[in-house]
Amino acid sequence: MLKVLLFDNDGVLAHTEELLFVLNNKCFEEIGIPYTRKDFENHAFITNLGTTGFMKNIGCSDAQINTFRNNRNLLWQNAVIQTNTVDPEAETVLSNLKTTYRIGIITNINRENFTKTHHSSSVPDLADFVVTREDYNEGKPSPDSYLKGLEMAKCNASEALVIEDSPRGIVAAKTAGIKVVVIPNPVIKNLDVSGADYKISSLSELPHFLETLA
User: What is the reported pTM?
Assistant: First the structure.
């Protein structure tokens, strides 16, 4: 019996990916490092490299990495506060589902950035718990974050369903033994999300989809 819904944040509840790509691109241009959308897709949605891993792989020094991260993080935090990136249906959908299911949010970003993303949103308050990057060891595609979600929810993998958008998130959930419904993100529309168990086209479709599982 399905009892718990575990939502990815970026790409599902908040559409922050394009903003991150634009700011990454701007900061890489300023230090003269070539950066493509394919680079972004690989380190952000397939692997757990992140920009730090990407920069290490191309031979950047620790000083270059620190300068980039400081500049990019400042730009991102300012931009995300000035921009409403939260899905317009997120609050309504979570409010609807909260009466039937426990709601968890499982994200690869730290709690400060999660809080800034939802600066004008009640989404965090609608969740029963939020798991951020400080709460587990290895990021997605490792299953650590979703295993932590099961621990927080006090449930078995068979009693949970993950809502994801990225290949690495799907791998993380499936490795944790949890079924996944994917909402393909237009920012990463060319990536392979066939590992998911189910597919819907928007967050607003989720309540009706869940009725079909009953």
Answer: 0.94
